[in-house]
Fold:
Amino acid sequence: MTVRNTVKSIQDIMRQDSGVDGDAQRISQLCWMFFLKIIDDQDLELEAMQKDYRSPIPNKFQWRTWAANPEGITGEPLMAFVNDELFPSLKELTGKDGRRRVVRDVFEDAYNYMKSGQLMRQVINKINSIDFNNLTERQHFGDIYEQILNDLQSAGNAGEYYTPRAVTAFMADRIDPHPGEILFDPACGTGGFLACAIRHMRERYVKKPADEQKMQQGLRACEKKQLPHMLCVTNMLLHGIDDPSFVRHDNTLARPYISYGQADRVDIVLTNPPFGGKEEDGIESNFPKHFQTRETADLFLALIVRLLKSGGRAAVVLPDGSLFGEGVKTRLKEHLMEECNLHTIIRLPNSVFKPYANIGTNLLFFEKGEPTKDIWFYEHRIPDGQKAYSMTKPIRVEHLKPCVEWWGGAKRKGRKETEVAWKVTTDEVKARGYNLDIKNPHTVAYDHGDPEELLQKLEAAEKETASLRDQLKAILEKVLLR
Structure:
């Protein structure tokens, strides 16, 4: 059976269990089980390579001990073991070892939704057929895991944790991270930006083990919510990260703004901060008065500017509201343009984040250290023959190739105005009150006709409608009087 069919059969088994309700719970259940199998497969490999290596998980709770035997415990004894022993023990793991901390953080808020021990045994036996130390199988599973993450877009509010991979890959490619640089995603969700950055560096710059080590040591991430944190950690394990403890289960915004000092500065920020959300009471008080707001995306933008080193660069997804908003948003945009060179804004159509969100989004690219002089705008258009992006026809990497060709290389030289690209000066932005919601000046508005003529046509149509209504009324009255 192929890996894809194995995962499909696991999902089919879970659908029979009365305790698993909906996609989000099924994905969460899948994740902690896959996580334990992946960790165990990695442990087996590390034990063979390193004489003094010890698994972060006690022997009794290692996958190989309780799950690997297809004739092992099942039914009520299995459910009792998982609920009363496995989960409580993994939640209470102690020690400073990075992998041990990862296990504890993953299980801190995890939950076993399955109620049938027989069905759980069937799922476990299916998972046992996947060898995560087999590179080919791991790559195949990585592709399937990507689809599982994509499924989050239709799993209610869980869609907020997922950014379309075409977008994350494009942003990582344009930012061009190198091994040794500190790369941070302060709201990492399921780890899409991290995965794309890792893939980018391995394809271009990782030539020897020392490069790989430097790359892994430079990764930083934080995720507030349990489900995406667990998905992200598992994602990192699938991408061959030895110690994913750099993915912290925490709220980046909960720490006072002023406490982020030189030691916290990073070379790169790649992120899609949650937009449309409100932070809980008290979080805004961590920020200076002129930046205080409960809007999550605004707080993240303020923090990102502070976190960047001089010369550091960022790529951030923001909604249209951040571009035209006033008040705190105006002060944030002014601060951003004074502290950083906001050199490029890619305008995306409303449908990119469907079905989770149907609002216009923008990709902001900036570098800290010099104020903004000019901003280039690029309007990404939906491919010909397609009205909108959707679940069945999502945005793809090739759709963004025209923007890559226009970009102008690493130094962005030779950019030209086109029907989808235009440049705006800082003075123009200031004159607009820092409203960055600047429409494409090359788009010709559709001519709907002369207003007077349109009114006359409307009046004529209304008269015709009234006449037809009177005729119909007369016919009905005759029928009723018979």
